[in-house]
Amino acid sequence: MKTAEIAQRFLDFFEKKNHTIVPSASLVTDDPALLFTVAGMVPFIPYLSGVVPPPYPRAADVQKCIRTNDIEEVGKTPRHGTFFQMLGNWSFGDYFKEDAIRFAWELLTAPEADGGLAFDPKDLWVTVYEEDDEAHELWRTLTPLPEERIQRLGKDTNYWSTGLPGPAGPCSEIFFDRGPAYGVDGGPATDDDRYVEIWNLVFMQYEITNVRSKYDFDIVGELPAKNIDTGMGLERIAFIKQGVDNMYETDQVRPVLDLAASLAGKAYGAESHEDDVRLRIVADHVRSSLMLLADGVTPSNEGRGYILRRIMRRAIRSMRLLGVEGATFPDLFAASRDAMKESYPEVEADYARLSAYAIAEEQTFLRTLAAGSAILDQSVVEAKNGGGTTLSGSEAFLLHDTYGFPIDLTLEIAEEAGLTVDRGAFDQLMLEQRTRAKADARARKGAIADQSAYREFRALGETVFTGYTELQTESTVL
Ligand code: ATP
Ligand code: MG
Ligand code: MG
Ligand code: MG
What we know:
This protein is of the alpha/beta class. It contains 17 helices and 11 strands. The chain folds into 2 domains: 3-241, BirA Bifunctional Protein, domain 2 (2-Layer Sandwich), CATH 3.30.930.10; 252-420 and 465-470. It is globular and about 70 Å long. The protein starts with a helix and ends in an 8-residue tail after the last helix. The structure holds adenosine-5'-triphosphate and magnesium ion (MG) (3 copies). Adenosine-5'-triphosphate (ATP) binds at residues 39, 67, 70, 79-81, 84, 86, 197-200, 231-233, 235-236, 478. Its EC number is 6.1.1.7. It catalyses: tRNA(Ala) + L-alanine + ATP = L-alanyl-tRNA(Ala) + AMP + diphosphate.
C-alpha cells in the first residue's frame, strides 16, 4: 500500500464519519514563536483553545510536519523523520473518548476491502494515562484487546498540557509490535524499538490552573466543551504496511536513498551500519529541504532559513562522509521531487525555483568545506601527533573566523577523529570578537568599509548554532 493510498484511506474513513476534510496547512506557522508546524494540531490551536469558534464540529487532515528536535534520531531509529506527515482527526466539543477509540480501532483493523488498514489485532498494544480508568475500560470493552495489552503509563508519556493554564488531558497511544526479533517482550512500557508508536489520541478534558510545571498543576474541573485531537504517523503506518524495516525505505523516501547509495557506490543494507545511517539521513534531509523550500523557506542565517541551511548541510556532509566530493543535490532533489509530487504537486510546479536554492546552497557549502577541511584535518593530525586529545579553542575560532567553517561541523569532525574541542575557549573568543566588533562599529560611526569580498564566507560562519535547543520545542503541541 503506497503512502498516498494510506493517506487517502484515512481521509475517506473520516469523511464517512462526518468529518470535514481540511487541506494541510503550510510547514511555516503564523506564530513566530513556533518556527514550524510540528504536529497536526498546530493549525487548529485557535479552535482547540476556544479563541475562535470552530467552523465545523469534526475535521480530519494530512498535515505536513517538521520536527528538528528529532534530528539526532533520524536514520538511527526506524521511525523519526525531520519531515513527516501526521494524519489527524478532531472533535471540537463533539464526540469524545468513546468514539475516538472506536474510530481508531475500526480504521486500523477493518479489512482492506472495507477501506481499513487491516492490522492484525494481535500486533497492537495501547497505553492509557495511569489514572484514566475510563479510557482503560473503553479499550477493554470496545475492542478485543486483552487486558495485558492495555498498559497504564505516567504523565510524562500519556498526558498532554501546554504548560500554561487552560486545557489539558490524558492521552492514549497505539503501538505496533514488530515482534521478538526487535527487542524484549513486555509492551510499549519496556521497549522502544520493538513497539512502534503509531497513533496518539489526546483527550482534552480538563481545565488546569496553578501550573508549576508541564506535569504538575491543579485541575479546576472538566472543560465545558471537550476536544479530541489525534495524530497518526503516516510514514510509520507506511513502513509497517509496506513490510520494510523503517520509514526511510517507504515509497516516498527510498528512491532518494537508493540514488544516494548509487552515487556513493555503496550497497545499502549490506556493508556498514554507519553508512546505512548516513544514507537514511541524506534521504530524510533532502526530502525535508525540498518540502521546506516548497513552502517558501529559503536558506539563510537565522530563524527558519537557518534550520533549512543546517538540514541541507547535514545532507551534504553525510554524502561527503559516504565518499562523494562533488555535487549531488541536482540528482537527489529531482529524485525526491518525483517521489513526492503525487501527494504534493507543488514540488514539481515550483521545482525550477526551489532546486536553484538547493543547488546554490550545495555549491557554496562545498567550497567552504574544501577550504576548511584541509586546515582542520591538519590541526587534527597535529593534535594527535602531539599526543593531545583536544582541539584548541583558537583553532576552532580560526576555522570559523577565516574559513567560515561552522563550529558544529568542527565539533562533529573532531569527534569523529576522537578529539574534543575546547568549547569554552572558543565561546570566549567569539564573545571577544563580538565585543570588538561592537566597539569598532561605535568608533567608525557610520564609516563604510567595502567587505563584499568577505561576505560569502562571513555569512556562512556568523551564526552560532543553537537551532536544536532554542528554536523549537514541543511544549505547546502534542
Ligand atoms: P515518539 O515517541 O515515537 O518520538 P511522539 O510521542 O513524539 O513519538 P507524538 O508527538 O505523539 O509523537 O505525535 C503523534 C504521532 O506522529 C506519533 O504517534 C507518530 O506516529 C508520529 N510521529 C511523531 N514524530 C515523528 C517523526 N519524527 N517522524 C515520523 N512520525 C512521527
Ligand atoms: Mg517524539
Ligand atoms: Mg511517544
Ligand atoms: Mg506520542
